[in-house]
Amino acid sequence: MLIVKKFGGSSVANKDRIFNVAKRCIEDYRAGHDVVVVLSAMGDTTDELIALANTINPDAKKRELDMLLTTGEQVSVSLMAMAMQALDVPAVSLNAFQVMMHSTSRYGNARFKRVDTERIMHELDSRKIVIVTGFQGVNKYDDITTLGRGGSDTTAVALAAVLHADKCEIYTDVDGVFTADPRVVKTAKKLDAVTYDEMLELASLGAKVLHNRSVEMAKKYNVELVVRSSLNRSEGTVVKEGSNMEKLLVTGVAADKDTVRISVIGLEDKPGTAFAVFNTLAANNINVDIILQSVGREGTKDISFTVASEDLQHAIEVLNANKERLTIQDITWNEKVAKLSIVGAGMMSNPGVAAKMFESLYNSRVNINMISTSEIRITVLIPEEDIEKAMNAVHDGFGLGA
Amino acid sequence: MLIVKKFGGSSVANKDRIFNVAKRCIEDYRAGHDVVVVLSAMGDTTDELIALANTINPDAKKRELDMLLTTGEQVSVSLMAMAMQALDVPAVSLNAFQVMMHSTSRYGNARFKRVDTERIMHELDSRKIVIVTGFQGVNKYDDITTLGRGGSDTTAVALAAVLHADKCEIYTDVDGVFTADPRVVKTAKKLDAVTYDEMLELASLGAKVLHNRSVEMAKKYNVELVVRSSLNRSEGTVVKEGSNMEKLLVTGVAADKDTVRISVIGLEDKPGTAFAVFNTLAANNINVDIILQSVGREGTKDISFTVASEDLQHAIEVLNANKERLTIQDITWNEKVAKLSIVGAGMMSNPGVAAKMFESLYNSRVNINMISTSEIRITVLIPEEDIEKAMNAVHDGFGLGA
Q: Which residues bind substrate (chains A, B) (predicted)?
């Protein structure tokens, strides 16, 4: 069996943890399996390197930042190889150049285009554990790129896909994917399995267990993922194609506080005004999430929408700069809001789910500002102060508790 | 003009020094020159990484150690590029993979085989300052190698050679090459120029200004080197072919305390016994320096030789293990010795130099244990406690003082 195992930065943060990971990998190796290990940089290394770069040049070119950051994973993989060698197991570390992880050119946020297998297969054939730097690629200029935060998950999935791995295990510091954040919802239960689509919705809604792009790639190449803890032997959560599993009505509840509602008021009520607003925002790389249009006073219309908190200032600037052209009379915003979502592949065929969610919120006296839905997700915007109460109410309402 | 400038770890140890180096390079760039910069790892990074590796595995494979250590230079070059960009100068950092610095396979002590120029020339053509990682290469397996301590000097010379640079400047924390270590000999004078051969002798005798292999390579490819300070504007010392320069009788005085004398006593006085001793040592990778053979008691012979201090224990073990076969009756050693050398290209045609040296030592009551000479060097082994007195005496004797 060929197993790809990915460990995050906290799993390799110090000597003891490095040896802990080494031993776990060696168990599989000694059982006769081929083992490929993908590692992130140790502990807070990436943040420390970013801070170092900022002292030199806060506007450093992303190419140079990638050149700097990728040293972090190279340190972890070489130390891991040394640890395995200390345990008398042949191991070899490889960086993105050595594997040839071809990526797009975009520094800081590259995507894999093609991953060569020759070197890894050669090392596996000589019965070595192969340890690969996560998070990094090489573009067509032979320059080093990074995949953006959490990119090591994507490295693991990409390798699992091209190597036709039998398993791709993503190790983290939680036991798997939960019905809700266990720190907020005490009755939250670990899920045995979720579909790719559910995982995608959960990931994009604030469940920080898996990097979103890695799930997209796993879905595309049908790589079965297991999310599990590096700290214990818990079985974890399997992420796989939905057709193979019992479809739960609702799989999980997720919350996202990093959102803000913006309202543009008094737009001319004629075709194209809404389009012009969102077109202007998109041209400035501002992603808009939930949208609500309502009738305003005296033949005008109002539009409310949410953006990520970090985009608020930029969005306001852009809207102000185009106020006249967009026929906006006034701009208001509210930062004290949060998104609450329920996700479940079974939702598609069950029309009563939304009503059930709204009932739970009503019973807890939580006011709903906006609503947005997808095939397997319902999201509501509520006051930020109510988010924990609301999460618990909805979690209980659907009987997700352990 | 194409200029290669190499800066050591202490020159890039912190933010201020990085900007200091950046500004010096930018001066040449703004004057219209093409500038290639070679950097070592920041400050004590290499030592810290070695210490880190030792906590994981003191017997780590050198391949993995090289993978680890080479991150140090990658950090310096990316930070330097950021610093130059902060000063509004286009700059790009390149590692050994990106330049393609082909080396032999020997990890920890590789040598360059071939260095590609295409990428560097391309970046220079687009008027960028090119910053290259020193100390590292890539072998035929696509694995990262290091050149051994001080290898960044060699990187600079190799690049100067293949790029046909007009200048190769080696920046250090001293003003250049001196007639003797200025910390020991107060009257020591900076030399304006030395020949490659003189520099080689001085380097191998303890003058730690230049990596020996870099001087060999500079000689082979006729790369004119300038050794100068990164801390001031002093002109430095030119290292070049001897034919172009006035030959000084004696160029400099060097001392080396890291030496120990070993004596093997009572060998059978027949052909081949000395050969057997040195053959055995060589087979165990122990380099022998000065050798002295003398007649022992009762038809036997004694042989004394010097080895580096770090090899003492190993040498004694090897000799003891082969005592019978080598017909050794007794082994003694003395760690309290030091080598004193004078070097000068003019020595070859001046037979009185040795006598002058011995006279200076005699006048200072310094006892000579052993003597060794080359065409441009005379070395004596003396008691370690006399080394500073002896250096000053010889330095004065040849009138080398400022």
A: 46, 73
* DSSP 8-state assignment for residue B324: T
For residue B81, give the nearest of A64, A82, A95 by CB distance: A64
- Block residue for tokens 């095939």: A375
> What residue spans of B87-195 are helical by DSSP H?
96-99, 118-125, 151-162
- Dig out the tokens for B242 from the structure: 């001897």
Q: Using the predicted structure, report yes or no on whether residue A122 has a pLDDT greater than 90.
A: yes
> Could you state, in order of their start, the residue ranges of all structural domains in chain A?
2-173
What is the pLDDT confidence band of residue A206, given thresholds at 50, 70 and 90?
low
A120 touches chain B (CB under 8 A): no
Please name every residue paired with A381 in a beta bridge, in sequence order, or none if there are none.
Answer: A339, A370
B143 burial level (CB within 10 Å; 0-12, 13-18, 19+): buried
Contacts of B53 (CB under 8 A, 6+ apart): A78, A79, A82, B60, B64, B65, B68
| Nearest residue of A to residue B141, measured between CA atoms | A98
Average pLDDT, chain A: 91
pLDDT in tens, A344-390: 887 877 778 888 899 999 999 999 999 988 888 899 999 999 999 99
pLDDT mean over A93-111: 96
**What is each CA distance from B361 to B42, B76, B383, B394, in whole angstroms?**
42, 46, 12, 7
Interchain CB distance below 8 Å, A60 and B95: no
pLDDT reported for residue A393: 94
Residue B293 has pLDDT above 90, yes or no: no
> Dihedral angle at the C-alpha atoms of B385, B386, B389, B394, nearest 10 degrees?
-150
Name every chain B residue with its beta carbon within 8 A of the beta carbon of A59: 85-86
DSSP A166-234: SEEEEEESSSS-BSS-TTT-TT--B-SEEEHHHHHHHHHTT-TTS-HHHHHHHHHTTPPEEEEESSS--
3-class DSSP state of B224 = coil
Name, in order, each residue with C-beta under 8 angstroms of A29's C-beta and a sequence gap of 6 or more.
Answer: A35, A89, A129
Alpha-carbon torsion, ordered B361, B366, B368, B369, to 10 deg: -160
* Model pLDDT, residue B244: 43
* A309 C-beta neighbours (distance < 10 Å), count: 14
Query: Is the pLDDT confidence value at B364 over 90?
Result: yes
* Fold of the domain spanning A2-173: Carbamate kinase (3.40.1160)
Helix (H, G, I), strand (E, B) or coil at B44: coil
> What radius of gyration, in Å, describes the C-alpha atoms of chain A?
23
**CATH C-level class of B2-246:** alpha beta
- Does A20 lie at the interface with B, CB-CB under 8 angstroms? no
ipTM for this prediction: 0.82
Give the Cβ contact number of residue B299 at 10 Å.
Answer: 10
CB contact under 8 A, B57 and A93: no
Task: Name the residue with higher pLDDT: A207 or A184.
Answer: A184
What pLDDT sits at residue B59? 94
- CA dihedral in degrees (A147, A148, A151, A155; nearest 10)? 0
Q: Are strands A252-256 and A337-343 parallel, antiparallel or unpaired?
A: antiparallel
